[in-house]
Every structure is written in C-alpha cells, then in structure tokens.
C-alpha cells in the first residue's frame, strides 16, 4: 500500500498540476505547518500535498520552519542555553501555509535538510482516515484571546521534523490543544541537498545551534 501511494504521488507530481478541487469542508481551507526542536534547525526544500480526490498541491512548505531556540533576533552564542531540544512540545503550532482549494489530505511529501547533522531526508506521510474524520468535527472551545466560546475545528496539520529523519504529525486548532496523529521514519535522499544542485552544500546552521550541538550533542531517540 505504501509503495503504491509513493508511485502514485510521483506520477502525479510529474504529470499533474495544482488544481482547485471541489470539496465540502466546514471551513474555507486547512493549513500545513512545520516546526523543529530547539537548536535542531531545518531547511525545508519542498512540501507537497495530495488530497483525497488525488489533486496535487505543490510548494506548500519551504524555508525555515518554526523553532523555539535560537530566537529570531538572537546574535552570537548566549551565556546560557535555555532551549530543550529533547522530545516534542506539548502543544505544537508551527508555521506554514493554507492549502486553499484542497479537500482533506491523503498524503504529504516533504523533503528537508536536517542542518544539525547535516543530512537530507524525505518522507511520505499518509494521513489516516481517523484524522480526516477529526478534521470535520466541530468542538466547543474557549478562546482566551477574545474571551469567547466558539465552535473550533482541527484544521491545522502540524509536522515536526527532527534529526534522524523523524516526522511527527499533530492536528491543531486556534483554540484547542494539538493531538497526535502519526509518526513517520523518513529516508535519506541520496541526491543530497537541493537534489544535488549545490555540490553537497547545505543551508547554513546558526552559530548558536552549532555551539549547542558541540557542547551537548543531538538527542537521538527522544523524538
């Protein structure tokens, strides 16, 4: 089943095009978001979506995902490392894009550079039917931002990317805690960064993350 899905995705990516699909959702679009553990920086080369109608939506993730440490405006190496890269955040949110025009997701393909190692990985993430059912269910939620009770939907598909090629997925909502969906072991992409177009050169790793990894190492096995 997995091999069949991979072959189908590749065929669609080669011969298909991004098309608005007719769909019936209780909201206008769901979002694909990404994050990485503290100091374990990542560069996403691409993220593509196949929905349940087999439409392909390409380029729905790229660049630097959300990360706690190093902070966005931090410079140099801090006197104290406050981030905790081991394990996952209790309620991840990530950052990313809305997948406008898509029906519920069936498959996510993501290719990324794990800058902490460095290594290039790719993963095919099959979204289970149970997750799609959850995405259609409204839940009563209290939103602290405006102090109101609303009907909220888990329309945020959040992917955590960690060293070793680990990709873990949650469903989130603006006013609900994120819930776990699945965990995938990605594979090394033998072409290397940018499909071999940069002679093995990776996106840069910050000095702060370099210093953390030099001092404490990478907590493999915690994700």
TrEMBL record:
<dbReference type="Pfam" id="PF11153">
    <property type="entry name" value="DUF2931"/>
</dbReference>
<dbReference type="InterPro" id="IPR021326">
    <property type="entry name" value="DUF2931"/>
</dbReference>
<keyword id="KW-0732">Signal</keyword>
<protein>
    <submittedName>
        <fullName>DUF2931 family protein</fullName>
    </submittedName>
</protein>
<feature type="signal peptide">
    <location>
        <begin position="1"/>
        <end position="21"/>
    </location>
</feature>
């Amino acid at each position: 089943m997995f091999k069949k899905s991979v072959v189908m995705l590749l065929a669609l990516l080669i011969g298909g095009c991004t098309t608005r699909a007719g769909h019936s959702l209780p909201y206008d679009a769901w979002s694909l978001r990404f994050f990485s553990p503290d100091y374990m920086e990542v560069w996403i080369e691409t993220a593509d979506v196949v929905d349940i109608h087999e439409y392909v939506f390409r380029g729905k993730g790229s660049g630097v995902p959300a990360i706690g440490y190093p902070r966005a405006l931090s410079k140099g190496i801090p006197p104290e490392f406050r981030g905790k890269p081991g394990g996952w955040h209790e309620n991840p949110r990530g950052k990313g894009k809305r997948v406008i025009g898509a029906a519920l997701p069936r498959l996510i393909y993501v290719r990324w550079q794990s800058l902490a190692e460095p290594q290039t990985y790719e993963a095919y993430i099959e979204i289970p039917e149970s997750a799609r059912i959850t995405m259609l269910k409204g839940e009563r939620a209290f939103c602290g931002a405006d102090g109101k009770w609303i009907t909220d939907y888990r329309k945020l598909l959040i992917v955590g990317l960690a060293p070793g090629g680990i990709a873990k997925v949650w469903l989130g909502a603006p006013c609900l805690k994120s819930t776990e969906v699945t965990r995938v072991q990605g594979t090394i992409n033998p072409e290397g960064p940018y499909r071999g177009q940069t002679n093995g050169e990776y996106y840069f790793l910050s000095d702060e993350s370099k210093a953390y990894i030099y001092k404490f190492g990478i907590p493999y096995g915690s994700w």
